[in-house]
Amino acid sequence: MNYKLTLNPECVFRIEDSTYITKSEFNSSWTAYEKWIAEGNEPLPAVEPPVVPAPEPEVVPVPEQETPAP
Amino acid sequence: MPTTIHGTNGITFNDGSTQNSRPAVGFRNRIINGDMRIDQRSSGASYAVTTGSAYGSCDRWGSLAGASGVWTQRRTATTLTDFPFAMRIQRTAGSTSTAACYIGQVIETTNCADLAGRSVTLSFEAIAGANFSAASSLIYAEVWTGTGSDQGWGALNSATWTGQTAIINSAQPITTTKTRYSSTAVVPAGVNEIAIRFYAVGVGTAGANDFFEITGFQLEAGSTATDFERRPIGTELALCQRYYDKSYSMNVAPGTNTLNGMVQGIMETYAGAWYQGGGSIRFTTEMRRAPDFNYRDYTGTLNRFTNFWTGSYGYNINPTVTLFVSTKAVSILETAGPSGGWSGSPLMCHYTADAEL
Predict the structure, then answer these.
(1) pTM higher than the cut 0.95
(2) Chain B: residue whose CA lies nearest to A17
(3) Whether the Cβ atoms of residue B35 and residue B85 lie closer than 8 Å to each other
(4) Which of B54, B159, B296, B350 is most buried, judged by most C-beta within 10 A?
């Protein structure tokens, strides 16, 4: 049995049967997952979404001000 | 025998049965799918029972065996008009294993806690196959109680229910003639969960017809077994869907290659270099708990979608997703696009959702 985390901490992916397991004290699948963790096992990490770069700020040049005549 | 109304001892009907108190009239059967009509998981296909507590055949009926590869369970069509379906529990021909095979149903706490302190009666129909090998043709019928809440089929079989106690433990010899059997017991005060369980133990080398068939289960309040309660198929299916739901038609097994009835999981869009997609699927009825969930493309491959585009369709589409599941629906967030990329296509899927006890 092996599991993979998802970005939702209340839902893990059970690799054996490609099933998403939901957190509930009344879910024997989830209690089996917790027991597996308690035995020292580690699930695979979640796939992080790609980091979308922030757009480059548009630079608007400040117009030069004319120096008033003395 | 005429019907007799006693002054203080209830009514004796002309079939000899006595009712000491007013019987419940509707929805008196606490067992769901007691006549095995509904088999959403396997649609009548044989299910190989393993040593792990599981659900694989008729809806709401859990299974377990003392050894894997010895027993199968399947919904079978009978030739009977009163019970056209039964669960056939069969020892594989040639097997010499004497491992037991179990079926059972755990009743949700909210549907049985009111029975604490009252008499209950279990009734069922059974028939033995021509080579049924159990010693003295015995099957064992049990009613279990506990004081916890919804601890489930697995915990029942590992005897870890809080206060787990058998109030009926009956060894019942059966024959090759279908017969209805019943037992009555009192549910102790404080009970909060109830299950029924049946098992048999094979002996010797299994023949081709080493099986028994069982159906017509009813657990009801009172000290008399009444006629099996007939509920409309739509009602019975809705009761089952609280525990197991799927996109496929009722009699189409999950994993079948079909486009019929797929639901939209994700509306895929493509913005520059980044996929953006999401969607939601609403369950047929509100489920007992947020269910375990999986999805498939139309060919039946797990964890894949089917894409629809320009009058055609594909399969094996594999975006990375995160699910947010409630008792009513699942919301799907796409966190990485599928390999190959399919921008602007609805990603369709079949699903199963399992919230069994």
Answers:
(1) no
(2) B302
(3) yes
(4) B350
Could you list the beta-strand ranges (E) of B92-159.
100-107, 119-128, 138-146
Instruction: Please determine, for residue A31, whether its predicted confidence score (pLDDT) is greater than 80.
Output: yes
- Lookup: tokens for B213: 């068939």
Backbone angles phi, psi at A29, to 5 degrees: -65, -40
CA separation for the pair B207, B161 (Å, rounded) = 36
CB pairs under 8 A between A and B: 63
Specify the residue for token string 């489920």.
B287
Beta strands B274-282 and B263-271 are: antiparallel
Which of the 8 DSSP states describes residue A17? G
Q: Do B320 and A18 make contact, defined as CB atoms within 8 angstroms?
A: no
- pLDDT of B180-212, one tens digit each? 999 999 999 999 999 999 999 999 999 999 999
Q: Which residues of B touch A (CB under 8 A)?
A: 149-150, 152-155, 274, 288-294, 302-303, 320-325, 333, 335-336, 354-355, 357
Beginning with the edge strand found earlier in the chain, give each strand of the sheet holding B179-186 in spatial order: B47-48, B71-77, B85-91, B211-221, B119-128, B179-186
CA closest to B304 among chain A residues: A18
Whether the Cβ atoms of residue B126 and residue B181 lie closer than 8 Å to each other: yes
Residue B352, SS3? strand
Q: Which of A48-52, B130-134, B155-159, B186-190 has the lowest mean pLDDT?
A: A48-52
Cα B88 to chain centroid, rounded: 14
What amino acid occupies position B226? T
Determine, for residues B324 and A11 on separate chains, whether the beta-carbon distance falls below 8 Å.
yes
The tokens describing B51, both together, are 């040593």
Diameter over CA atoms, chain B: 85
Closest partner residue to A19 (CB to CB) among B289, B290, B294 is B294
Q: Do B292 and A22 meet the contact criterion of CB atoms below 8 Å apart? A: yes
Tokens of B80: 């009977």
